[in-house]
Amino acid sequence: MTGLRSGTMRWRCRGPAATFSTLAYRVLKTGLAGYDVGTMSSSQPSDRRGAILRALISHYVRSGEPVGSKTLVDEYNLNVSSATVRNELSWLEEEGFISQPHTSAGRIPTDLGYRFFVDTVGSDPKLSPAERMQVESFFGEPRFELEDALRHTAALLSNLTDHAAVVFAPALDRSVVRHVELVSLSTERAMVVVVTDTGRVENHVVSLGAMPDEVQLDQTAELLNRMLVGQPLDEAAKTIVDGIERLPLELRSVASAVAAVLAQSLSMHEAERVFLEGTSNIVDEQKFADLETVRQVIGALEHRRLLLEVLAESLAVGSVSIRIGSENAAAEMRSCTVITAPYGALGHPVGSLGIVGPTRMDYKRTIAAVNAVSVNLGRMLGQLGV
């Protein structure tokens, strides 16, 4: 592994999501809005200091309690005395890798300490055999409704990590129309059924001033199929509007109503394309500083536009991204770690997913879960032809 001053490190993970960005160190050169570069250290720990820091972080993540030198000497094979550990802890504190919440307490990691831990902890993080089986079993089940699959994927990721999980699906509306059906419901209403190539089925009720007879309804459906089959779903409404003058006059009112309901559906999907699960984990894990911080994080999670920005950035980068605490541009997220990854078939990202949790987390396990779920979701989409 190269030195931490380099701009990027690559962790060898299976699948398309394999590049881990060392954002904190690139910040020194490029800057990031809202990032406190004053907390960054110009020095890097020696091998011995790095080993002590990793031991401290591992213990703190498990216990949640400040860690003292005696604990490190007693429980970790550091091959140094307590006095040496104390001296090295003092250096790590001076350089901003750890802090001491109280003069009589041990030390806890800072955002910079966690960043060092993430960038030096090792390559190819893996799930346990039981967790791998859980992921493979989930994605081995047949799933015909894409939105339902993505919602359950968010729940799976939350269950694996014990953090809040999100799945962003900007490409849902890129699905292609496979079939359109019109079904009479009453004298004034009909149902529009649209089936796409991804297995997505949309049902919409349209209100009509005067219901056409069954023959006209079937004719309208036949003409709509000629216009829309093979066209992107997000362009269906515009395609109908652009071609409506080519339809018989008596069929135009039904076609116009179908176009209106499809346009409304597209607008609704824009707001619903973030699938969020596991917000209760934010409250249950008690790893944040206080209740106000918990409220702030939950508020940020409910702010869909903020989540869209975080996840869309991962999609643009095309790699696994790990933002720790103050590395997050949004002030509401600076008590959190956000780990995201793109997903897509054959290495072509179509969406992104990730977790939001406290900076005190099991990074290896969480990174492994995010990577495994993104890779398997991409394979599933490939099988669906997305």
- The total beta strand count reads 12
Overall mean pLDDT stands at 81
Q: Give Rg in angstroms.
A: 26 Å
Which architecture of the largest domain per CATH?
A: 2-Layer Sandwich
| Structural class category | alpha+beta
What proportion of the residues form beta strands (DSSP E)? Answer: 15-25%
Low-confidence spans: 1-41
The count of domains is 3
Q: How many helices does DSSP assign?
A: 14
CATH-derived topology of the largest domain? Beta-Lactamase
Report, as a whole number of angstroms, the end-to-end distance: 36 Å
Query: What's the main sheet like?
Result: 5 strands, antiparallel
The backbone outline, from C-alpha atoms, is: elongated
Give the neighbour order of strands across the main sheet.
9-5-12-11-10
Helix content: 40-55%
Order of helices and strands: EEHHHHEEHHHEEEEHHHEHHHEEEH
Identify the CATH class of the largest domain: Alpha Beta
Write a brief caption for the model.
With 386 residues, the protein is of the alpha+beta class. Helix content is 47%, strand content 16%.
Draw up the topology in text.
Elements lengths: L7 E3 L8 E3 L1 H8 L16 H17 L5 H7 L6 H13 L3 E2 L8 E2 L1 H10 L8 H12 L5 H16 L2 E5 L8 E8 L4 E8 L4 E7 L6 H15 L7 H8 L8 H21 L1 E4 L2 H5 L6 H12 L1 H14 L3 E4 L11 E8 L7 E8 L4 H22 L2
Antiparallel strand pairs: 1-2, 3-4, 5-9, 5-12, 6-7, 7-8, 10-11, 11-12
